[in-house]
Write a structure and sequence with these properties.
mainly alpha, Rossmann fold, 5 strands, TPST-like, P-loop_NTPase, TPR_rpt
Length: 529
C-alpha cells in the first residue's frame, strides 16, 4: 500500500502527527487489515504513549492476514512494548512467536534479540542477533548487541572480534572501548591504553561528556590492571565527579529509603498486614552490596543439579511496587515502602513467583535470584516467602567501597547513584551494614552472611556451609563453578570463569592514601575494616 509506505516514511522522519493521521485513515478504510493498527501503535509508542500503543499493536496481531515477515515485525514490536511495561512473561512468549515466523529483516531480528536479552535469555538471543548481523554486517548497533551476547555467554574471542570491527569503522565508539576493557584482564603486552588516550582526547575536544565518561572508566580499569594506581584513580575520579553532577544525586535520597525500611520493620508488627506467605522453598536470594562476590556464589549454587540461575530479577521490587499501588515513577522510595506494610504476604509471594517463573526454563526444583539490591527487601521477602533462603555476601568494607566506586553501573540506575562519590559510597555501606544487622535479628535462621574472604581462603568448607544453609545436598560440581556454562551478564563475567582465587582481597590498599577519608569514617562508625 502506498499509504503504508508514506506512514513509515513519516515515522522515520519523526513526523508523528502525519504518521498517525495516515495510519488512522488506513484503519478506517481497511478495518480488517493489520497495517493501520500497527502503524498507529508505532506512532503512539514513538510519542511515549506505550500504554496506548500496546492494544493497537495487539489489534494488528489479532487480525492476522499479514505476510510472515510483517507478522514477525508486528510480534517483535509488541514484545518490545510489553517489556517496557514489565509484562515479561507475555513479552518472552511473543518474541519467540516472532522468531518462529522466520523474519527476514535485520531490525526485526535485532528487536527479538534485545527482548530475549532483556529477559536474561542471552543464549537464546544469539540466533536473532547473528542473523541480524548477517543481513546488515555494517550496522554497529546490531554488531554491538551480538558482541555483548557473545561476551555474556563466554565466547570472549568472538566478542572481541565484533567489538574491534566496530572500532575499525568508528574509533570513538565509547561503549565499545569500555566493553573491551572489561572483557578480560589487560597486560603489559596486550592493552588498549594508547588507543583509549587518543579516543578520550577526541571525545573531550568534541564535548561529548557521555563518551568521555565511558572512556575514562575504560582507562581506569586498564591502568589498574597494569598496576598504575595513580593514573587509574585520576581518570576514575574525573569520571565519577562528572557523573554525580549530571545525576544531581544527594545521599539523602538513599538515606530516606533506608530510614523508611527500618521504620517499617522495627515498629509494631500488628501494623503490618497479617498473613503467612507462600510456602514454596524454591527461591534462594543472593544479596549484598554489588561487587562483593554475589555472582561467584550464584555460579556455585547454580552448578548444583537442583538449582537454576534466574539472574538479577526485578521481580520482588516490581511486585512490591505493584501491590503498594503508589503513583511515583520510582520503583523504590519512602512512600512506596510505607505503603508496602499493607500488602498481604501471600499476595506478594504469589506476585513474585509469577514474575520469577518467566525467567526459568530448566525445570529444576530450586532457583537463585541474585539481584544484589534485594537486601533492601529482605523483610518483604521473608514475610512473603518464609521458606526462602537468603545468602548475603560480606566483603571487607574497604574493598567493597573501592569496588563500588570504581565500577560503572547502569549510568541512570536508581540503585547505584551513590557509587559516583567516595564518601557517599562509604555512607551507603554504613547503612547497608546497619540494615543487615536488623534483618539478622529478625530472621536469624533464614539469613546466612557469607564472608567473601573466607570463601576464597577455604572454598570447600564455606561451600559446604552455603549448601547446607540452602537445604541442598553436597555436590562436587559446586567446587568447579568456573566450568558452569550459563551466561553471565555482570562485570564479574571474566572472574567467575576462572577457578577460585584471592586476587580481589585487599585491592583497596593500592589506593590507601586517597581512600583514607572513607577508612576513617567507617572506623568512626565502628565498622571493621
Amino acid at each position: 500500500m502506498l499509504a503504508e509506505q508514506e506512514a513509515r516514511r513519516a515515522l522515520a522522519s519523526g513526523d508523528l502527527p502525519k504518521a498517525a493521521a495516515i495510519a488512522r485513515s488506513l484503519t478506517e478504510a481497511h478495518p480488517d487489515l493489520p497495517q493501520g493498527y500497527f502503524l498507529l501503535g508505532m506512532a503512539a509508542a514513538e510519542a511515549g504513549r506505550v500504554a496506548k500503543a500496546i492494544p493497537l499493536v495487539e489489534a494488528a496481531v489479532a487480525r492476522g492476514g499479514a505476510a510472515p515477515q510483517a507478522r514477525a515485525e508486528h510480534l517483535a514490536q509488541l514484545a518490545r512494548l510489553l517489556v517496557l511495561v514489565r509484562r515479561e512473561g507475555e513479552a518472552g512468549e511473543t518474541a519467540r512467536k516472532a522468531l518462529d515466523c522466520s523474519p527476514g529483516d535485520a531490525l526485526t531480528l535485532d528487536t527479538i534479540g534485545c527482548v530475549l536479552a532483556r529477559l536474561g535469555d542471552h543464549q537464546g538471543s544469539l540466533k536473532p542477533f547473528s542473523e541480524a548481523v548477517a543481513l546488515e554486517p555494517e550496522n554497529p548497533d546490531f554488531r554491538y548487541n551480538l558482541a555483548a551476547a557473545n561476551g555474556f555467554t563466554g565466547d570472549v574471542e568472538a566478542a572481541r572480534r565484533h567489538y574491534e570491527r566496530i572500532l575499525s569503522h568508528d574509533p570513538g565508539e565509547a561503549r565499545v572501548h569500555y566493553a573491551l576493557a572489561i572483557l578480560s584482564r589487560q597486560t603489559a603486552e596486550a592493552n588498549h591504553v594508547p588507543r583509549l588516550e587518543r579516543a578520550l582526547a577526541a571525545a573531550d575536544t568534541a564535548g561529548d561528556s557521555g563518551a568521555s565518561l565511558r572512556i575514562r572508566y575504560a582507562l581506569a580499569k586498564e591502568l589498574e590492571d597494569l598496576g598504575d594506581a595513580a593514573a587509574s584513580l585520576h581518570h576514575l575520579s574525573a569520571a565519577n565527579h562528572a557523573q554525580k553532577q549530571a545525576l544531581g544525586y544527594h545521599f539523602a535520597q538513599d538515606a530516606a529509603i533506608f530510614d523508611a525500611m527500618e521504620r517499617l520493620f522495627s515498629g509494631d508488627p500488628a501494623a503490618l498486614a497479617p498473613g503467612s506467605g507462600r510456602t514454596e522453598a524454591a527461591p534462594i536470594f543472593v544479596v549484598g552490596m554489588p561487587r562483593t562476590g554475589t555472582t561467584l556464589v550464584d555460579r556455585i549454587l547454580s552448578s548444583h543439579p537442583a538449582v537454576e540461575a534466574a539472574g538479577e530479577l526485578q521481580a520482588m521490587p516490581l511486585a512490591v511496587k505493584q501491590l503498594a499501588g503508589t503513583p511515583s515513577r520510582r520503583v523504590i522510595d519512602a512512600q512506596t515502602i510505607a505503603a508496602s506494610g499493607a500488602i498481604d504476604p501471600g499476595a506478594l509471594g504469589e506476585a513474585y513467583l509469577k514474575r520469577a517463573q518467566v525467567h526459568l526454563g530448566l525445570g529444576r526444583p530450586r532457583f537463585t535470584d541474585k539481584l544484589p539490591a534485594n537486601f533492601l527487601y529482605l523483610g518483604h521477602i521473608l514475610r512473603a516467602l518464609p521458606k526462602a533462603r537468603v545468602v548475603c555476601l560480606r566483603r571487607g568494607a574497604m574493598d567493597t567501597v573501592w569496588s563500588n566506586y570504581k565500577n560503572l553501573f547502569a549510568s541512570h540506575s536508581a540503585y547505584y547513584a551513590y557509587s559516583y562519590d567516595l564518601m557517599d559510597t562509604a555512607r551507603y555501606y554504613g547503612r547497608f551494614d546497619r540494615l543487615m544487622a536488623q534483618w539478622q535479628r529478625l530472621w536469624p535462621q533464614a539469613v546466612l552472611q557469607l564472608s567473601y574472604e573466607r570463601l576464597v581462603a577455604d572454598q570447600e568448607s564455606e561451600t559446604r556451609r552455603l549448601l547446607a544453609h540452602c537445604g541442598l545436598d553436597w555436590n562436587e560440581d559446586c567446587l568447579s563453578f568456573h566450568r558452569n556454562r550459563a551466561a553471565v551478564a555482570t562485570p564479574s563475567a571474566a572472574q567467575v570463569r576462572r577457578p577460585m582465587n584471592a586476587d580481589g582481597v585487599g585491592r583497596w590498599r593500592a589506593h590507601a592514601a586517597p581512600l583514607e577519608p572513607a577508612r576513617l569514617w567507617l572506623q568512626e562508625q565502628g565498622i571493621a575494616i
